[in-house]
Amino acid sequence: MNMIKAENLTKTYGDQTVLNLDSLDIPKGQSFGLVGNNGAGKTTFFSLLLDLIQPSSGKVLNNEIEVSKSEDWKPFTSAFIDETFLIGYLTPEEYFYFIGELRGRNKADVDAMLAQFEDFFHGEILGQKKYLRDLSKGNQKKVGIVASFIGDPEVIILDEPFANLDPTTQIRLKALIRELAQNKDVTILVSSHDLMHVTEVCERIVVLNKGEVVRDIATSAETLKELERFFGG
Amino acid sequence: MIFGALYFILVFLAMGLGAFYIIDKSGLGDPLQVVNGIMIYYLVVDLYIRYALQKMPIMNIRPLLYLPFRKGQVVQYSLGKTLFSFFNLAHAFFFVPFSIILLIEGYDPAGVVGWHLGIFALIFTNNFLNIIMNNKDSVFYPVIVVLVGLGVLQYYGWFDITLYTVHLFDALYNQPIYALLPWGLLIFMIYAAFHYFKKHMYLDGGLATKQSVAKTEDYAWLSRFGNLGIFLQNDIKLIKRNKRSRTTVIVSVLFLFYGLLFFTGSLEVYENPVWQIFAGIFVSGGFLFTFGQYVPSWDSSYYPLMMSQNIQYKEYLNSKWYLVIIATLLSTLVSAFYLYFGWEAYLAILVGAIYNMGVNSYLVLWGGAYIKTPIDLTSNKNAFGDKQAFNTKTLLLTVPKLLLPLVVYALGHYLVNPTVGYAMVALSGIIGFAFKDAVFRKIEKIYKKEKYKTLLAYKQKT
Question: Which residue of chain A comes nearest to B239, CA vs CA?
Fold first, then answer.
């Protein structure tokens, strides 16, 4: 079954087409990687998926719900795109509880869930007496990523999750994503500039270039080489 | 900001032109002496307003650090720029016409020039004093305590500092040469500010952004209201923890006193009973107007989160609506002190409050959908008006907000009697209340329609 379907999806600004997908299907449970240079349309695609921008034509279906027509996709979808997904004047704890409440998880549930991420937080997030706006970029990112896991969503969208993270956290994040990918109910979409990271965590990699799909690869031992040839060349 | 600036320019200009003759007529004594008497408070209030509102130059220094300028030049440039701040220029609109009138009225030209230049230097001294104080709370609070203390002492007639300070300012006129003293002070302040800045020009020193110690708070009592409670919790934190929203709340408290202009009979035009309703609407509606008109802009910095999270528009709007209603109720309770001016005064406020809750609460939310100004919660920029808040749609919406209740009241008042006038305004509020669900569906539709435009507008950083 396909969880995400894009049909004839385009987005244009003036006479510039920033995204043009004839058809892109992402099956349920897949860990899906999106790579491409700046301006390739990665964030545009994610924003369309979250109904944050309107498609110029075509549509996106999330679990057979057209996202711009109904809001019913929201309960099972979560995302961390950038710092506009954080509420700067809250402490990390308050933010997690807030997201938890929105997703039907009480404080105890959230606390139990956060306990699993102690390693990932590396003692820099909880109980720091800081508001989110005063955290470093990397720590903000950790908060946003973990918040997107709250409430057992079936679709998780992470834009550039590896950027700004320190090496230790990058490695831990990879483990986290791989673990999520084991769960066949969770469809996870990740974009990245780092070819190595995506090839390590994603079963399938789609390369976007100027808004169009130019490669669609089932990840194998050769994938990294292939991607390097593409971008290097 | 432009509107605010124009307003203050007009006020200052009017004072500058009128002060001399108003004081002269009222028989308080020699106008220059009177002005000199309150000058100390004038300067203090100026300093306080600067501290609260004037933007510091430090934030603009950061990008200059890496460029090939000498530190001295950067500091010079940054401090020099503050000289042209509105907070300095505004005073000219008072002092220049006032001084010219002094000359016309036959005051000693040398004295007037000395006085003018002296005050001029003191205003700019404030400018630099503020820059130094801004970085040191340890200077600011003691100064404020001393000044408030002096104000209290004067009010109760125990000790009047103006009796002493008046001589200082008089001296500028009597002995123009004394004007050199404030200039000496100004030069010293410039020197001090320059060195202070140069010494602290490091990212982790004077240029560091202040971080507050955060405390996780939980208003568990609100949780029992379900999703509504969650949003209310957030809104309370939003108001408490951000400079911009705090300023708005302070302004909305000032609205409470707006009615004094009407009910004390201090302005003749406001004697008309129809205007009393106008006052009633403003007294109870301070928060509704100042905070409400910027829904949803308060959430602009994380609007994409709100739009993609598991949130129904209806719940979101509902919580903002409740916030506005609760604040209106509070204002109405607090304004019970208007009972002092007779029950009619308070009745006007009560009726205004009912109209605010029943009708205006929707209208501000509706209008907010069209004000797509991103708000930077951490700064007071544009806190006093924004040109986008004056677009045609929002202006059109002020008609039912402010004029309609006046018309409704006037109809009742003049066709039947005042009681019927009050009853009709209150009734329109109650009718509005009854249609909440229908109106909310409509507003929800407008918000949905405007959603993409709003998201795009919020993306443009302030």
Answer: A89
Say if B268 is an interface residue toward chain A (CB within 8 Å).
no
Interface test with A, best of B306, B308, B453, B459 (most A CBs within 10 A): B308
Q: Kindly compute the dihedral angle of the four CA atoms of residues B346, B351, B355, B356, in this order, to the nearest 10 degrees.
A: 10
Cα gap A62→A50, rounded to integer Å: 9
CA angle B133, B135, B141 (to 5 degrees): 50
| Of residues A84, A91, A103, nearest to B302 (C-beta) | A84
Choice among B19-23, B331-335, B357-361 with the minimum mean pLDDT: B19-23
* CATH class, range A2-232: alpha beta
User: In this predicted model, what pLDDT tens digit does every residue of B357-407 receive, in sequence order?
Assistant: 999 999 999 888 888 888 888 776 655 555 555 566 666 777 777 888 888
Asked if A51 lies within 8 A of B378 by C-beta distance, the reply is no
Query: pLDDT higher for B383 or A167?
Result: A167
- CB A90 within 8 Å of CB A133: no
Q: Residue B254 is which amino acid? A: L
Distances (CA, A) of A24 to A3, A39, A96, A130, A215: 11, 19, 33, 42, 12
Contact B308 A79 (CB under 8 A): yes
User: For A67, which residue in chain B has the nearest alpha carbon?
Assistant: B308
Q: pLDDT tens, B91-144?
A: 999 999 999 999 998 888 999 999 999 999 999 999 988 887 776 666 667 777
Residue A192 in contact with partner chain B when CB distance is under 8 A: no
DSSP B89-116: HHHHHHHHHHHHHHHHTT--HHHHHHHH
* CB pair distance less than 8 Å for A102 and B304: no
Contacts of A55 (CB under 8 A, 6+ apart): A9, A10, A11, A48, A68
> B216 to chain A: which residues are within 8 Å by CB?
91, 93-94
Using a 10 angstrom Cβ sphere, with 0-12 exposed, 13-18 middle and 19 or more buried, the burial of residue B2 is exposed
Residue B447 to chain A, least CA–CA distance (Å): 13
> What are B39-72's pLDDT values in tens digits?
888 888 888 788 777 777 666 677 777 778 888 8
Distance (Å, rounded) from C-alpha B52 to C-alpha B63?
Answer: 25
Task: Spell out which residues of chain B touch residue A84, defining contact as CB-CB under 8 Å.
Answer: 301-305, 458
pLDDT digit string, tens, across residues A133-162: 999 999 999 999 999 999 999 999 999 999
Q: What percent of chain B has pLDDT over 90?
A: 22
Pair A24, A3: CB distance under 8 Å? no
Which pLDDT score is estimated for B462?
45
Task: Return the domain boundaries, chain A.
Answer: 2-232
pLDDT tens-digit map of B237-260: 999 888 888 888 888 888 888 887
Q: Which chain B positions have a beta carbon within 8 Å of A131's beta carbon?
A: 212, 214, 241
Predicted TM-score (pTM) of the model is: 0.78
E strands, chain A, are 2-13, 16-27, 31-35, 57-62, 65-66, 77-80, 155-159, 187-192, 204-209, 212-218
Q: Which residue stretches of B105-225 are H helix? A: 109-134, 137-155, 162-174, 180-199, 220-223
For B:414-453, CB contacts with A below 8 A are: 452
- Tokens 């998880």 locate to A105
pLDDT at B192 over 50: yes
